Amino acid sequence: MSLRYRNPVAIRYGGGALEELPELLAGRHAVLLTFPEAAGLGLVERIRGILGTALVGVEDGIEPNPDVSSLAPMYERFWREHAACEAVVAVGGGSAIDTAKALMVGTPSGNFDDLITALAKASAFAPQRTKALIAVPTTAGTGSEVTPWATIWDRAAGRKYSLHLPEIWPETALVDPNLMLTLPAAVTVQSGLDALSHALESIWNMNANPVSDTFAVAAAREVMATLPALLDKPRDAPLRARMALAALKAGLAFSNTKTALAHSISYEMTLRFGLPHGIACSFSLPMVLERAIGVDPRRDVVLASVFDGQLLGASRRLEAFLARVGVATGFAAYGVTEDEAKGMIAAALEGVRGKNFIGVAERA
């Protein structure tokens, strides 16, 4: 057996870790990228107090699922006003961190359209200028703090782009579970299920290896054990800490394998039906699990370890878990007809992420 695993992101984890920002910046100046509600929560003012004069700007207009329509003016303003700063501190969920990744790589012209043109043509893009990224997740699920890619949406064109560059690995992932104590229930569920999907998708994956499996199994088991309890006790600090660590492990797993069929299905569910990403990539997990079982005995062993050594009835157990946190698992629940669902699955299997699925040849 041989394997390759690489993740260059330094990790700081623990309650109160946000206070370590000055040490991580080490004298550099930074722009804070965060979500609109951060100021009202006192988070922006807190970071100002921590960083002092090292903080040279705040961009808090981050939108969910960053779209080219809002990214273009933000990108050009960012490079016009903050070209001299050395770092970006992204505080928020996956949208904030993905936005930071899109902003931190500068085109020669400073125009965002040049970046999108390169992504649309799948041509090589070598950033002329880059900034260091410190990623501070405020949700337990995205994994973007330890991955080298970001999703950019173009809803007007019905497209999504995957930005994947060596330069957008975060320098540091600073995971402070205390920042997650006030997360609303809906965001807690969506982000938690995103983490579960990352974990399972990295197991039924052509790129899986024993290192990614170790992270993935631990993450999946922890999410399934913790998320229902967290919904009952949303301000419970130990539960938040467990979920934050589970999401981090899931991120470390799929940072090397990428995602697979469930995520490939999710993109159309988000574009066409407006389903939040965490729901869009998790509602199909029982169906995908059924397709994965029996394809590869070695993968079956790993999947079984998620479900206490027993794959018989595992998909029903997964359905019951999703129902417990309020998520329906049938396409029809989201307004998708049977014929549409079949077409969506077939198209997803042919997608870049779908081709990572171990059952793509056997079950297509």
List keywords for this structure.
about 375 residues, alpha/beta, Rossmann fold, Dehydroquinate synthase-like, alpha domain, 2 domains, 6-stranded parallel β-sheet, two-stranded antiparallel ribbon
Please describe what this structure looks like.
Helix content is 48%, strand content 13%. The protein is α/β, with parallel strands linked by helices and 364 residues long. The strands form three sheets. Strands 1-10-7-4-2-3 form a six-stranded parallel β-sheet, sandwiched between helices. Strands 5-6 form a two-stranded antiparallel ribbon. Helix 6 (185-203) packs parallel to helix 8 (237-257). It is globular and about 60 Å long. The two termini are 28 Å apart.
